[in-house]
Structure formats: structure tokens, C-alpha cells
Specification:
By secondary structure, the chain is α/β, with parallel strands linked by helices. It is about 30% helix and about 20% strand. It has a single domain, classed as 3 Solenoid (UDP N-Acetylglucosamine Acyltransferase, domain 1), CATH 2.160.10.10.
């Protein structure tokens, strides 16, 4: 339960970087939950994943899965509840988001609308920490995206990229480097 709360606190902090993670309380949770559809979906996803392994809470799990499915349809965010994503996950603009549950995503992952992350030939992407994905980007296949990577809007990523890269295009290629002076996180 403590891990679940910590992940949700990290998600709240990703929407407002000025907050101290130790000072995030129920008030900040409620504010973010009712204000931000992406946070609402990811919170319910995390709760479903937590409840799934608790046999005594099976009826609550089924109820939360139903709620999760309704939120997915309402906001156009399709994320498998088995998705392996660390804390700090933020969806800045909801709608048209599809993330296959086989993907592995690090902490401080920030995406915009119309992003697709999925498998190709049953292989899914692994995405590092502190990654920003622009609107309309597509990331597919058994590739690895390094840490501190920025992916431009409309990019089609089908090959692996190293740490600190700024990538864009169709097909995606390195167009710059995230240095200490211009890192987004």
C-alpha cells in the first residue's frame, strides 16, 4: 500500500514540479484527481494493479476494473492496467492515447495527446527515465529509449536511441542533445 501511495504522490508531483513530495496530502490528491483526466485514469490504473493481487479484495478489484474501463472510453486513454510504469507518469493532454501493457516505462514519463506505444512482432518498447513524448508520436517494437530523451511531435520511432537525445521525424532521428542547460526535468 505504501508503494502505491508513493507512486501516486510522484504522479502528482509530475504535474506540479514545485510541490515537495513529502508535503503532498489528500487535498492535493483530490484537486489533481478532479482537475486532470490523465491523472484520474493513471490513478485508477495503479489501484487496479494493486487490487488484482489481493484475493480478499476481488469484488473491489472488479468494481475498479469497471470504473477504469469507463474512464478509458470517456477520455480516450487506453492503457493496459498491467503496464509497468514508475512514478511521475503524467498525461498533459488526454485523448487518443494507446499504451500497450507490455511496455516498460521509467519514472517521470510525460506524454501528450494521440501518442501510441505498442508492440511489433510481440516485442514492446522499453523507455527510460525522464522522457517527454510530443503529440502524435508513435513508438513501436522491441526498442529501447534511453534516459532524458525528448521525442518530438509526430515522430515515428522504430529503432533504439541513447540517453540525452532529442529525436524527431518520420522515421525518427537524432536532431539534438539534452544537456544540463536544456533538460526538461
Amino acid at each position: 500500500m505504501k508503494d502505491l501511495i508513493q507512486l501516486i504522490k510522484m504522479d502528482i508531483k509530475s504535474y506540479d514540479g514545485k510541490l515537495n513530495i513529502n508535503n503532498i496530502g489528500f487535498r492535493q490528491f483530490l484537486y489533481r484527481y478532479f482537475k486532470t483526466p490523465g491523472f484520474k485514469v493513471t490513478t485508477v490504473m495503479r489501484i487496479c494493479k494493486f487490487l488484482e493481487t489481493r484475493k480478499l479484495l476481488k469484488p473491489l478489484y472488479l468494481l475498479m476494473r469497471f470504473k477504469y474501463r469507463r474512464l478509458q472510453v470517456k477520455y480516450g486513454i487506453q492503457i493496459g492496467h498491467h503496464l509497468n510504469v514508475d512514478g511521475g507518469f503524467s498525461i498533459n493532454h488526454y485523448g487518443g492515447i494507446v499504451i500497450g501493457e507490455g511496455a516498460k516505462i521509467g519514472k517521470n514519463f510525460n506524454i501528450r495527446q494521440n501518442v501510441s506505444i505498442g508492440h511489433s512482432k510481440y516485442k514492446t518498447p522499453t523507455i527510460g527515465d525522464n522522457v517527454i513524448v510530443g503529440a502524435g508520436a508513435i513508438i513501436i517494437g522491441g526498442i529501447t529509449i534511453g534516459n532524458n530523451v525528448t521525442i518530438g511531435a509526430g515522430s515515428v520511432v522504430t529503432k533504439s536511441f541513447p540517453d540525452n537525445a532529442v529525436i524527431a521525424g518520420n522515421p525518427a532521428k537524432i536532431i539534438g542533445e539534452n544537456t544540463e542547460n536544456n533538460k526538461a526535468f
